[in-house]
Amino acid sequence: MLRAFVIILISFVAAVSGLAQELRVDAKPDPITFPDWTIVDQGEDVEEFAVTFPSSVTTSYEENNNVPLRAFVPRNKDNVPVVLVLHYWGATDQKAEVSLAQDLAREGVASVLISLPYHLSRTPKGYRSGDLAIQADPDSLIKTMVQAVQDVRRSVDWIESRSEFDSTKIGIVGISLGALVTSVAYAVEPRFALASFVLGGADLAHVVWNSSRVVAERDRLRRAGYTEEKLREAFAPIEPLTYLPNRKSTPTFVV
After folding, report:
1. 21 φ/ψ angles, rounded to the nearest 5 degrees
2. Which among 10, 174, 212, 254 could disulfide-bond with 182, CB atoms 3.0 to 4.6 Å apart, if both were Cys?
3. CA torsion, points 133, 134, 138, 141, in degrees to nearest 10?
4. Distance between CA atoms of 136 and 236, rounded to whole angstroms?
5. Where are the beta strands (DSSP E) in the chain?
6. In this predicted structure, what is the pLDDT of residue 16?
7. Rounded distance, CA 61 to CA 225, Å?
8. What percent of the chain is helix, strand and coil (3-state, nearest 5)?
């Protein structure tokens, strides 16, 4: 009986340890074998490809557990620089990101567009794109941010697996929510040679506590007893400023 109890205890500790590792933004996702990409469109200057792979973080929503990428690659060029592009909160399409990708392709730079957790095709049935990404619950926000950063880092693994891209010249750009994810990903992922943050940056608690986009969520947090400072303490595991001091400096651009 004692032996059975010890086995159960060891299994429990292992499970908790695995969960703790999974919920760290600075933990590397497990390596996987990626499926081959498929061609979607072929233009005069750029070819579009698509690939989907499993997220390293499993949630209770099946739609959210796979990560679709759209790659825009300059035609007739190889080993090109590449930029990972992250969209804004609540995006229902990627028109702005596609336009950016096409402009970059004409300059000889490839782009990879990622769908963030609970957005676009990752939206669970019965919800709107982005509904579940930002909730009035710090634990849920932390889990979503960890998944987003882990998905970004696995996307970098995929980029490195393709000979079409120059793995020494990988950049990242994010807009709004995408910029917040970008700031954390850039802080913990050394393979990014440069980064750009558009309408977002650091101090996540200040953003949540002052943004006009999350009034209802902030009111619920306030009723639950949170202040901006308490929220800052809760967000420490996903706060870019927690990790940026250890980040080797590279070119960055903030809008």
Report:
1. -70, -40
2. 174
3. 30
4. 16
5. 38-42, 46-54, 66-74, 80-86, 110-114, 165-175, 192-198, 252-254
6. 34
7. 29
8. 45, 20, 35
d(CA 176, CA 201): 8
Q: How far apart are CA 197 and CA 180, in angstroms?
A: 8
| Tokens, residue 113 | 């567009």
CB 143 within 8 A of CB 23: yes
Q: Which residues pair with 46 in a beta bridge?
A: 74
Residue 250 is encoded by which pair of tokens? Answer: 């590279």
pLDDT tens digits, 5-31: 333 333 333 333 333 344 799 999 999
pLDDT digits (tens, 9 = 90+) for 77-105: 999 999 999 999 999 999 999 999 999 99
pTM: 0.90
CA distance 234 to 236: 6
Whose tokens are 């998944």? That residue is 147
| AA identity, residue 32 | I
Q: In angstroms, rounded to a whole number, what is the distance separating the alpha carbons of residues 218 and 53?
A: 34
